[in-house]
Amino acid sequence: MSLLLELFGRLHPMLLHLPIGMLCALGIYEFRAWRKGDPPAPRFWVLLAAGCAAFTAGSGWQLHQEPGYVENFALEWHERLGIATGIGAILCAMLYSNVTRYRKMLLLSVATMLGAGHFGGTMTHGEDFIFEPLQKLAANNATQEPASRVSYERDIAPVLKAKCSKCHSASKQKGSLRLDTPEWIRKGGEDDGPAINEGHPDGHPILERILLDLEDEDHMPPEGKRQLTQQESDLTTEWLQLGAPFGPPLAAADAAAIQRLRDSLVHVQTISAESNELYIDFAATATDINNQIVTELLMPIKDNIVELSLARAIQIDDGIMPLIVQMPRLEILSLVNTSITAASEAALKEIATVHLFGTAIQSEQPSDALATEILDEGEIKLANTECPVTGEMIDPKYTIVYQGEEIQFCCPNCPKTFWEDPEKYLVAK
Amino acid sequence: MDDHDLLLTRRHFFGLGAAGIGGLALDSLLGPDLLGLKDSVPTTGTHFRPTAKRVIYMHMEGAPSQLDLFDYKPGLQKYFNQELPESVRQGQRLTGMTSGQARFPVAPSVFKFNKYANNQDGVWLSELLPHTASLAKDMCLIRSMHTDAINHEPALTFFNTGTQQVGRASFGSWMSYGLGNANANLPAFVVMISQGAGNMQALAARMWGSGFLPSEHQGCKLRAGDDPVLYLNNPKGVSRDDRRKLLDLTNDLNEKEYQRNFDPEVRSRISQYEMAYRMQMSVPELTDISDEDDETLEMYGKDVHTQGSFASNCLRARRLAERGVRFIQLFHRGWDQHNNLPNEIKGQTSAVDRAQAALVKDLKRRGLLDDTIILWAGEFGRSVYSQGTLTKTNYGRDHHPRCFSVWLAGGGIKPGIVYGKTDDHSYNITENPVSVHDLHATMLHCLGFDHKRLGYFHQGREMRLTDVFGDVIKPILK
To answer: In whole angstroms, how far apart are CA A313 and each of A316, A317, B105, B281?
Structure first.
């Protein structure tokens, strides 16, 4: 029996559309009949509507008996108004003989039914289901949200496989380009070089191709081939803006360890808002720290460190290297003015950028000489600033051309004097 | 509602606005670490990975002449003493200093220019800057800067705060707000001033003020002399322990006051007391240059031993940079050469040339140029026509906002390039104009910020350094 009841309850989502339709139809019919003075709808339809409404309310009640419903405002009012609609519809049928009362009751039932329907819809589809598209429009105009983390393996590789691999993979390499592994993507093709600008938010040739107009002949994938969907294009953009990270998303560093660093006046900063990679600077306490202190502080977060400055920490020496070599992501390391020696040189070669000024490894002397190559020298060549005849300031109004060169004078009389013996005045000049 | 409740609501609102909408500096504003000796830097700051962590901004106050230093116009020599054509000036407004002049005679530079090898086809620079010329392969020279203001005060305010009206937050205070400091013992924003040889204009402290930002973000001025920060040292008879006890008590009282009225400025005060306490230790160490080797001192020139000189400030700037300070601003005064330019400008360039070149090279060898943006700029340019009497060897130049030259280096800026062109008279820009907002947006970009998203809610709207303007100048980025 309980199984049958359960089945009855489960019919609710299907049944509920019948009374909605019928009560609405009756409402419209009776409104029109009332305006025109026609008789009410045939009793059969009123009875049928009442039956459907009662069944629906009943099945809803039964469905609610099942576990799993969270009591909330929408559910409570859906139930109340639904039962009210069921009762209302039965009353409509009972009051049928009195047309005025029947119609008033019908109006009430339609009203409660609309309310019940609204809350029912809220329960199944969530609030603002209908207006969601409009909100999306508004959201697009609002400030851009910080990007969430994208994974190459999970999000990007499938896109590349689906949309690019036909021409750019092991089977075929148009433009000598393969996009099926990180290594090939880094290597790039003959036109653009590397397809990505790893570690940078922009300057990715692959993205420029994707974002070109479809009509542009450099656009990828070519016109006529399957294009990236908007979502795929957005994901790819997001990934590239993060600097095209191939590894799995890095977990955030241990918060307690970071707090310990901060308490020790060590500067800790993520390299950007979305990243878990860290920049660590011992600037405030450089002269006090030693290998042991730094190792203890940094060991718990070693995977997250990409930039580290130990500059001016005179007590830091080769003993720091066991820690340094355990930092897989370390890209920039400053050991300026530390006591590091040539013994560490080989291990340091593994790191992209190492600053070693003021150490035993490299103590580069700056050249104070003006070591710049002079390609060309300008001339100070004022045509003549003094009148060749009188030695007064020239006035550009009185200009003549002599042997292809402009000569200017102080007054209208001097050119005449000049012409009498040009060589004399030029020599004098 | 009595007055106090009104105040509380208002302060509450501002406090929440600051933390909620600004967001970036959440930790440094509301974090629990204000009271102790703790790093106040937010973990999440920048919008994307920055190419620069700090800025050294050398402001040449008074506006150096682009015509005599950076913008080579050999063709001008044949126009000597000729009237500036109206087709060039196009009714440009003039300052009160030359608007009454009967003539606007062209004054070509008396200085020789040389072409130095850079990473393009070379750059012409004046003989006045021989040391700076040795940076030709590191510097990005912009010849197409322009500004809206024609007088010093509004132009300085514009360059430093992004608007000509007073009251906004300065560039350095935005950095302090957005990034915090990499050294908890020093302020994030430090200002130093050196006096020039020529005509000096007033220089107001609000150029490094914090405007609407919490006041701990304002620039801290380091003075010349034995007392770089006034009243920093304990008075005679007061020990450091006594000072600590005094601060603990004051901070307790201030914190109680904050709990009562929620005025964020109360917490600013607590953090400033704490900063001052830490600076009692860190500043003497910073300004004591006895640990610098002779060869380094030699690089900066003999002026480095004169406290308050530009050279001395350059060396301090390097020491601040390596200690993690975010924004270091040097003002060198005295570039306002309305008359007697050829003589006065020599005094200016001899004070800055060697030292600024040394600063860049010193940063470079320490690996600091990679993530430090150097900006060298005046607030506007100078006119091609002479102010006052023009002679063969002497002239003056009036203010000129339509084009001037600035240079940048390091921090993700493309090295060894020239960007932008001006016309034959260095009067109008003919190619790639760069506004002050563009420059700010570009520098913020290098520092990891989308200039449109670094904001602070104030007076009913979100304020930003670039207001509603500015484009990142991509061609000058690496």
So the answer is: 6, 9, 59, 17
